[in-house]
Design a protein that fits this description.
18% strand; TIM Barrel; two-stranded antiparallel ribbon; single chain; globular
């Protein structure tokens, strides 16, 4: 049975931690703290230089919903072309219509811009009106992977839908379970859903190197500390990989 553990990273150091844990695949983004946005060219090139990991690149121009204007779509098409030329292994993205359906036409435009790169439909899927309709549309588009929490805040909460999606996909598309994935959760989810592909960040919160600290001033979202760094931890990834390997072997 094929098992996959994908690590979501937004820095070179996190990518190095994923490689240290012998991960095979990463999703590269920026700003993971807000759910991830498109990474910059320099970040991609640094990760490509320092690791030999399979790199799937997130295309998401901003925080918020997945309904984009013409300028954002143009940006996403240019990024798809750029990352294909830079040597990305796959694109991770999703676009919705205002009515909550998958925007098939605009997704086709991105797939065309990527000229044959593999595609993952990301958690825009979890905001779709009809998960099963979106599943069939993804298959028709030739998308290889759907990243989903089962339309809940965590994969464990969404386990019922995840199981149904895995059954209805019939191997036509990889169902990649994400959100709240830990070693303990992986074991239970494999048993319940039979899904063997998982997506996690394995993050720890590290203290800033700053000694002088200005209090009462926020550079971004209020409530988030300016002096905490989110980073992937190799031990967390290694532990999850061992659990996944073990339960897959048992099955």
């Amino acid at each position: 049975m094929k098992c996959t553990l994908e690590v979501c990273v937004d820095s070179v150091q996190s990518a190095l931690e994923a490689q240290k844990a012998k991960a095979e695949r990463i999703e590269l983004c920026s700003n993971l703290i807000i759910g991830g946005t498109s990474p910059g060219k320099a970040l991609f090139q640094q990760v490509r230089y320092y690791t030999d990991l399979e790199i799937r690149v997130l295309l998401r121009p901003r925080f918020g919903d997945f309904c984009y204007d013409k300028y954002e779509l143009a940006q996403m098409r240019e990024e798809a072309e750029m990352y294909r030329e830079l040597g990305a292994d796959a694109i991770v993205t999703g676009i919705l219509c205002p009515d909550g359906t998958l925007n098939v036409e605009q997704m086709q435009g991105l797939i065309k811009a990527a000229h044959g790169l593999e595609f993952t439909l990301h958690r825009a899927f979890d905001m779709c009106r009809d998960a099963f309709m979106a599943l069939e549309q993804a298959v028709e588009l030739g998308i290889g992977t759907i990243l989903t929490s089962g339309q809940k805040n965590s994969a464990w909460e969404g386990r019922k839908l995840l199981k149904e999606l895995a059954e209805k996909s019939e191997g036509r598309v990889e169902i990649l379970a994400g959100a709240g994935i830990t070693p303990d959760v992986i074991g239970k989810l494999v048993s319940y859903t039979k899904i063997t592909a998982y997506h996690m960040s394995g993050k720890v919160v590290k203290n800033s190197a700053m000694e002088f600290r200005r209090t009462g001033v926020n550079m971004g979202i209020p409530g988030f500390s300016e002096y905490e760094i989110w980073q992937t931890d190799a031990e967390k990834i290694r532990e999850a990989a061992e659990v996944l390997k073990g339960v897959c072997k048992d099955d």
